Amino acid sequence: MTQLLESIFGGLSVGSVLLLAALGLAIVFGLMGVINLAHGEFMMIGAYTTFVVQNIFKKTPLAEGYIFIALIAAFIVTALLGILLERTVVRYLYGRPLETLLATWGVSLILQQFVRSVSWQLMAGILVFSGLFFGGLWYLSKRSNWQQIRSLAIAVLLLLSTLIAFVFSAILGQTFKLAVTKPWFGTQGVDVTAPRWLRGGLPMGDYQLPYTRLFIIILTALCVLGVYWFLNKTAWGLRIRAVTQNRNMSACLGIPTQTVDALTFAIGSGLAGVAGVAVSLLGSVSSNTGQAYIVDAFMVVVVGGVGKLVGSIVAAGAIGTTSYIIGSNALGPLVSFSPFLKSFFEFFATASMAKVMVFALIIIFLQFKPAGLFPQKGRTVDA
Hints:
The chain is mainly α.
């Protein structure tokens, strides 16, 4: 029984991480209908932001409180990246889920490669190109004849920006030998050290509840309450829900739908960064960190019901607890009276096989409840 209670708590802590990872998806995928496969990479960037903040404040009086600064920094960094992704890629793909999936998958690969191998020379070239190209577009878009010269201006700016950025990065690389140095973290993993007050655990008989897990559970609860309050109690939350229900009517009523889209994507991406902070406390951070959670996060959103916050909470707890109980073989001793059941649960008593079992259970569940635990109701479903 002690092992079972330990497994239940471990499952709830895993579920809280899944819920934290799925909150951003529940907003972006559930409310906007965008399949963002780069969501896991936003988690990775949030985790790396935690590592950077930790190193900055390591020898300062704020060393024991860096985790709170990291939460704010990770949210801001990933939210800005989310706005950039929405403005440059996703905005042109609304209503085309397959193209959105492929585009965001490409963005996820780009972000992984950035972390692994981008040099200062290439980074300088990208910054110069972005400044010249997008700055030029912004300046020329203010001209009265912009629509007439738009195609020619884009072609000329693209060519000139590429050439100038290439020459600049080449000169910079030869002068300062920047090609052999990297601004990011390479392929090796990095470790985030939890503050002293998060080390150890709360004694519960023969078992200790790790403080890091308790912190993640509390952080998840606060994020859920914050998202609920924002969507239901603020003017911009009302606008988001209005655009979700009927975009054309919302635009007719004067709601800036493009601003709402960018804000929604920023909030979802920022929550992914917060999830990355939580993940960094559980193990090493590498370029593949987000890939370990993205599929499970999508499972939480689909099983809970697209766009349903309550459904995501229930699904995350159920999936996390089930996976942890099966993977830790907590049920094996309880069914020792049956050799078949005991050997059955022992066969699935690994993390990978437990995930296989959870996938199978979800497939069976979706045969009976294809819309999830809390399906959408109302006229939008019929539409």
